[in-house]
Amino acid sequence: MEAITMRSEFCKRVELLAADFAATLWDGVVESAGSERADEWMKKHGGGFLRCALGQALTARSERLRKTDDAGVCSCGGAMTYRQRKSMELHTVLPGRDVEGRAWYAQCEECHVGAFPLLREMKADPEGFTLGLRELSLLAGVVEAYQPAQEILLQRFAGVDVSRDKIHQLVFLQGKNATGYLKEVAPAMEPSAPGRPIYLGMDGGMVFVDKRWQEVKLGCLFREEDRAEPSKDRGELLRRHVVAVRGTPEELWALVEPRVAVRGDQLFVVLGDGAAWIWNLAGFLPNRVEILDWYHADEHISELARTLYGEGTEKAAQFRDVQLTRLADDGVDDVISALQFLLPHQRSKAKKSAVEELLGYLDRNRTRMLYKTFKSRGFHIGSGCVESAISHVFQQRMKRVGMRWHQAGADAMLALRSIYRTHEAWDPFIAWSSMAA
User: Fold this and answer.
1) How far apart are CA 207 and CA 403, in angstroms?
2) Which segments of 68-163 does DSSP mark as H helices, in order?
3) pLDDT tops 80 at residue 263
């Protein structure tokens, strides 16, 4: 491919490519009665046309760069000097992937390492993958397991061939960037409307990492105005911030804290399942209301009902309904009194232990179970948003049959999935990281 130095020369070459493509399109679709597969034909052959046109454009761009006589600086600090034009190949998002062209090649005066200044300007990585293809491959690996990401999302849908090793490499490298972004760069949550709280739900789930099950802790933040109710019994979050980490509560808080850095006396409603670490972290928020998730309270009472009276029995259903009615009316002390009355009448060690366990649970959380009061203040008492986030952020991607993780890969994926599942966070992260190789 000869050097292109004039705009008219470039336009003429692209016009020739377009004329050739138009003739091929006529033969392949119009005259061959192939219109039923016209879109597939266009994807295959149109990609080829676009790759050729881009190759011409990049060849011309390299000539423009050469005119500046500044080939840049090598990573060793030495000056790069232009040497000659050489063939180059670039891996792009265009169907068929590879773009060929000729560009000026430069060499370092100190260490003699060579490079194409054009590829550096394009932020292509050492393997020739463009910024766009790296982003597409990363996103495919974050959304899907590596094999379907490669075979379905990239090959079948996008028409580009990227190895699973490359996808894994991108996830690992960008996962480190994602962790830093969440701690130091990602914007804080916007304050809620006057008089309305910000909700913080926290919970945990298990992922198989390094040959054992390990807990992932997750925080989900949303404002009252970020929530919609498509139906009477179903809520839906329109916007949310989520963070997840495999580690200690303090490591989770290191990701939550930058999100809650809002001004003034902002009220927070903290929703949890009763785990001590959740309420310990809630203590970092001076203006807060702590609520034990209603559905977990129901779950604990229902479990005791089954233990005492048997699965599916009328007595179990009656016991559950009475205690939940009391709870709904701020009657947690009445539930505790009822259990204290039942305790000495249990002959079975298992039943006695179950009653004692629920008594302790209720006693530790009695101030967090004033559901009538909470609802009168307009607060939500269920943490369905957190349960949903646990599924969306890491279980759907990281807890599939036969799936195993190492620490570094798991941590990278958790950071990337946190950004991916936070409203309008992915594009700012990509812009910030610039997909550095």
Assistant:
1) 9
2) 117-121, 131-143, 146-148
3) no
Q: The whole model's pTM is what?
A: 0.90
CB atoms within 10 A of CB 351: 17
Dihedral over Cα of 156, 158, 163, 167: its sign: negative
pLDDT (average), residues 175-193:
90
- The model's pLDDT over 221-250, given as tens digits with 9 standing for 90+, comes to 999 888 877 666 666 788 899 999 999 999
3-class DSSP state of 33: coil
> To which H or E segment does residue 161 belong?
none
| CA geometry: angle 435, 48, 126, nearest 5 deg | 30
Domain spans of the chain, in order of start: 7-122, 135-186+422-437, 198-293+382-421, 296-367
Residues 338/359, Cβ–Cβ less than 8 Å: no
What would the 3-class secondary structure string for 181-215 be?
HHHHCCCCCCCCCCCCCEEEEEEEEEEEECCEEEE
3-state secondary structure (DSSP) of residue 283: coil
3-state secondary structure of 90: strand
Q: Side chain identity at 3, as an amino acid letter?
A: A
Cβ atoms 295, 233 nearer than 8 A: no
Say if residue 88 is exposed, middle or buried (CB neighbours under 10 Å; 0-12, 13-18, 19+).
Answer: buried
Distances (CA, A) of 354 to 295, 346, 409: 18, 10, 40
> Tell me, which fold does domain 198-293+382-421 have in CATH?
Nucleotidyltransferase; domain 5 (3.30.420)
Task: Tell me what pLDDT residue 232 has.
Answer: 64
